[in-house]
């Protein structure tokens, strides 16, 4: 995994990343839900008759073009501070977008919603609103299909014994490439912290895709606030050292400083002490495992697949995900070896997972 050699490129912050704007969300939800219901009654009726399982030919679905969210953001900004006429126009535009999303999306619905018993009119309206929001978000970000919802987290985490996908020496944290599970889930992990793309934060928040960020302080520290925003939307923050060294070259004091120093730093910046540690370049020693364990680390997740904006690198010859696979990617800006944006990368991972019948789940629910 390369370390970006360039300094993080300053980028404009958008409102959606810094503070997603949903004014009066709870107060207005019931009314808005009924409005949307009335508008979309025909589409919803059609959806209710569909099987929630992913279509087997989802992989063959045409890839939607990258849909920049500019128009949707403009509509939101308009509604936030504009006159009633402009608000009505923005609302009509939003409803038209939701209808277009319904028409364009393959039929699917979140598993949780499919099995939910609905009590009364308002909860039914909220249910439908949530579905419409999921569909609209998926459409807005150019996904080929609605992402699959992961199953409920396992009541007992998988045992991490030495075996396929797991290396474990007695008394030391396990090194995990693939979590032992039969659930059709994969885990997305994002390393380093150089690029702080507000569009990526907005996309992650709107789609609700679980992720784990492994941060190296020398790259993340220019704006830990960005990562706190991700954290507020469900991204877990974990440890990737202070300065991204090759741990095989470090003595005991340096190991302590790099690993445990970043434990302390992240606890200070995020309010949570990490449990997971990813060694830079995937390289580690027994001393590194022992040092990490001494300051609160319980596992070293590595990876099987690696995601880029324009392709995926597969671990196995069948070029497919397997249950429990950990997927690596990076906080990167477009570059010669990174042909696209972080939203391009996320779109590619989510679409590949959905097409193969996998949901993206939270690594910390399993490790
Ligand atoms: Zn790294």
From TrEMBL:
Native organism: Kitasatospora phosalacinea
A Pfam family: Polysacc_deac_1
Record domain NodB homology: where: 184-367
Entry superkingdom: Bacteria
Protein's name in the database: NodB homology domain-containing protein
Molecular functions per Gene Ontology: hydrolase activity, acting on carbon-nitrogen (but not peptide) bonds
Residue ranges, annotated region (Disordered): 1-30, 49-78
Bias type Low complexity, positions: 50-78
GO BP, sorted A to Z: carbohydrate metabolic process
């Amino acid at each position: 995994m390369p370390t970006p050699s360039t300094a993080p490129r300053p980028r404009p912050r958008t409102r959606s990343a810094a503070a997603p704007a949903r004014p009066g969300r709870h107060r207005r939800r019931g009314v808005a839900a009924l409005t949307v219901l009335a508008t979309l009654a025909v589409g919803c009726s059609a959806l209710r008759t569909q099987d929630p399982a992913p279509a087997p030919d989802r992989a063959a679905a045409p890839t939607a073009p990258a849909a920049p969210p500019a128009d949707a953001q403009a509509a939101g900004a308009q509604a936030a501070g504009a006159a009633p006429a402009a608000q009505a126009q923005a609302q009509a535009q939003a409803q038209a977008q939701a209808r277009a999303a319904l028409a364009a999306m393959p039929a699917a619905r979140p598993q949780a919603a499919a099995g939910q018993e609905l009590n009364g009119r308002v909860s039914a309206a909220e249910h439908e609103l949530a579905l419409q929001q999921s569909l609209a978000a998926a459409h807005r970000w150019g996904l080929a299909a609605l992402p699959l919802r992961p199953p409920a987290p396992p009541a007992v985490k998988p045992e991490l014994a030495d075996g396929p996908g797991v290396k474990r020496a007695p008394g030391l944290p396990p090194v995990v490439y693939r979590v032992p599970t039969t659930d059709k889930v994969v885990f997305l992990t994002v390393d380093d912290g150089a690029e702080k793309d507000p569009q990526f934060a907005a996309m992650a928040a709107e789609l609700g895709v679980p992720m784990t960020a492994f941060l190296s302080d020398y790259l993340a520290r220019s704006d830990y606030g960005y990562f706190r925003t991700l954290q507020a939307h469900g991204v877990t923050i974990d440890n990737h050292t202070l300065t991204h060294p090759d741990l095989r070259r470090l003595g005991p004091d340096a190991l302590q400083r790099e690993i445990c120093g970043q434990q302390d730093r992240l606890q200070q910046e995020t309010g949570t002490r990490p449990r997971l540690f990813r060694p830079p370049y995937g390289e580690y020693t027994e001393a590194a495992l022992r040092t990490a364990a001494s300051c609160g680390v319980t596992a070293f997740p590595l990876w099987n697949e690696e995601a880029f904006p324009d392709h995926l690198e597969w671990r196995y010859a069948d070029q497919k995900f397997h249950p429990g696979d950990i997927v690596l990617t990076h906080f990167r800006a477009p570059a010669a070896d990174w042909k696209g944006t972080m939203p391009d990368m996320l779109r590619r991972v989510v679409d590949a997972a959905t097409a193969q019948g996998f949901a993206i789940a939270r690594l910390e629910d399993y490790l």
